[in-house]
Design a protein that fits this description.
The chain has 189 residues and is an alpha+beta fold. The protein has three helices and eight strands; from the N terminus they run E-E-H-E-E-E-E-H-E-E-H. The protein has a six-stranded antiparallel beta sheet with strand order 6-5-4-3-7-8, covered by helices on one side. The chain has a two-stranded antiparallel ribbon with strand order 1-2. Helix 2 (116-126) runs antiparallel to helix 3. The protein is globular and about 40 Å long.
């Protein structure tokens, strides 16, 4: 498994967990991290409708992890993915957009075709824990009413969030990684 300078490693210690024993990447702050997600009010409103507490203030043990990827904010209605490993058990939910064409409950449980560990590994390899906020990158292409991506991730007491506005129009390698993560989630779930 790839390891970046801002990701430390630790063995999983939860013997009852159905996960394999391997070196586990750890979440660490990245230069330029934001203290609140961009579009925080919109995200909190959608999370509240799904009975989700703000991720930033959620209590997790050191071995627990949760991430949320929010997609939309322009012409595309907001939808999101919530994936967590709590007490060694994986789970996930897709939060559908709430609009005139969708019907309650506006959410469905996820069950990745090839298993949670494989999904997690692909997301980590794509940069889930290490991508910088796009504000740290140069020469952003401005697009009106495009699709933006906000990622929130918390592992134990460490929380970080980053945003990519219209990554399909950007030339950065990191924007391609952001799109790759979204494609993995949409494809697998």
């Amino acid at each position: 498994m790839r390891q970046d300078s801002n990701v430390s490693s630790q063995k999983q210690e939860n013997s009852s967990a159905p996960t394999s024993r391997m070196v586990e990447p750890r979440l660490a702050p990245v230069a330029g991290d934001q203290s609140e997600p961009l579009f925080a009010e919109t995200i909190h409103e959608r999370a509240e409708k799904a009975n989700l507490p703000p991720l930033k203030s959620k209590n997790l043990s050191d071995d627990d992890i949760e991430f949320r990827m929010w997609v939309g904010f322009g012409k595309k209605p907001l939808e999101g993915f919530v994936v967590s490993r709590i007490g060694g058990r994986w789970g996930g939910t897709f939060l559908e957009s709430i609009n005139l064409t969708t019907r309650p409950p506006y959410r469905r449980e996820l069950s990745p075709q090839n298993g949670w560990e494989k999904l997690w590994s692909q997301l980590v390899d794509a940069g889930l824990l290490t991508l910088p906020d796009s504000s740290q990158l140069k020469d952003e292409v401005q697009v009106e009413d495009g699709t933006s991506y906000v990622v929130e991730v918390r592992q134990g007491s460490v929380y970080r969030t980053y945003t990519y506005m219209n990554p399909g129009y950007q030339k950065w390698r990191e924007a391609k990684q952001m799109l790759r993560m979204a494609n993995i989630l949409y494809k697998w779930c």
